[in-house]
Amino acid sequence: MSHRAACHCGAVTVTVADGVPLAIVNICHCQACQRRTGSPFGSIVWVPDATATVAGTTRSYTRPTDEGRHFTSHFCVTCGSNIAFTAEKNPGFTGIAAGAFADPSLTPPRTSVWEESRHPWVAVPEGAARFPKGRV
C-alpha cells in the first residue's frame, strides 16, 4: 500500500511507493522549525528520494542551518503548507511533513533533535534518541 501526504488545500501531494515504511520520523525543536511550522517543533518523515513522488506546484525556500548546511522547504503556492524537504544533512532522502499524512497511526518519532530549544511542556515519545543539538 502506498502512503499519500497532502497540503491543506490538496493541490500538492506526495506519494510514497508501495511497501516503503514510514519509519524514519524525527522531531526538531530548533527555532527555524518552530518558525517554519508555527508550532513548538517540526516533524518530518524521511524516505529515499526514489520512493517519493511530489505532484503539484510548489515553491521553495532554502535556509542555512546552525550546522552550516542547507535545508530546503517546498511549499504549496496556493495554501502555503510546507509539504516536502531536502537537507544536505540527509543526501538521497526526501522529507515529508509528518502531519501531511493526517494519519494517527504514523510511527512515532525515533529521534528528537535540537532539544536545547525544546519547550519544556513538549513530551518526547519514550525510547526516542534525544540530542541537545542537531544530530551529526
Describe the structure in your own words.
The chain is mainly β and 136 residues long. The protein has one domain: Metal Binding Protein, Guanine Nucleotide Exchange Factor, Chain A (Beta Complex), CATH 2.170.150. It contains one helix and eleven strands; from the N terminus they run βββαββββββββ. It has an eight-stranded mixed sheet with strand order 6-7-8-9-4-3-10-11. The chain has a three-stranded antiparallel sheet with strand order 1-2-5, with no helix packed on it. A hairpin with a 5-residue loop joins β8 (82-87) and β9. The chain is globular and about 35 Å long. The model has no long low-confidence stretch (mean pLDDT 93).
Descriptive keywords:
about 140 residues, Metal Binding Protein, Guanine Nucleotide Exchange Factor, Chain A, three-stranded antiparallel sheet, globular
